[in-house]
Design a protein that fits this description.
The chain is an alpha+beta fold. It has one domain (2-141). Helix content is 30%, strand content 27%. The chain is built from 4 helices and 5 strands; from the N terminus they run H-H-H-E-E-E-E-E-H. The strands form 2 sheets. The chain has a 3-stranded antiparallel beta sheet with strand order 1-2-3, with no helix packed on it. The longest helix is centred in the C-terminal third of the chain and has 22 residues, at 120-141.
């Protein structure tokens, strides 16, 4: 657990952090009143075991995403993404992903689904090929 907590971004903003980083406000915020009420109730419902011998009720654990940390790669490299969340049964989950280009993430029950563009490798290749071609062209022209 300590290893997961060490890798999470710190919520305390220090003086040095204020110099190194800029807090970017959201461009737009949309709120749907009571739009996630059933999901919140499902997440907050504890695992219940009945006292009778024949009946056992098990509620599927649900993941509540807590933090997202992205280490951007240079040029053709892959971005390292670290997602941390809490399960409704009390577990702390940390997952690493290596993605390229644009990507999106969605919580599904007790896991995260991360999708990246199928053609993201082409963008990485072009980021490498265009400067290389320009260098060869300029080097051969003089």
């Amino acid at each position: 657990m300590e290893v997961l907590l060490e890798r999470e971004p710190d919520t305390v903003v220090t003086f040095v952090d204020r110099i190194k980083y800029v807090n970017v406000p959201p461009v737009q915020v949309a709120v749907a009143s009571q739009g996630a009420q059933s999901e919140v109730q499902a997440f907050c419902r504890p695992i219940t075991v009945s006292q009778t011998v024949t009946d056992t009720v098990y509620v599927e654990p649900t993941l509540l995403l807590r933090s997202v940390s992205v280490d951007q790669a240079m040029w053709t490299g892959r971005n390292e993404v670290f997602l941390t969340g809490l399960l409704s049964n009390g577990d702390l989950i940390g997952t690493d992903y290596s993605v390229r280009g644009s990507w999106s993430a969605r919580v599904n029950a007790d896991s995260v689904i991360v999708l990246q563009s199928r053609m993201s490798w082409l963008k990485g290749a072009m980021e490498f090929a265009i400067p290389l071609a320009a260098g060869v062209f300029l080097g051969g022209a003089f």
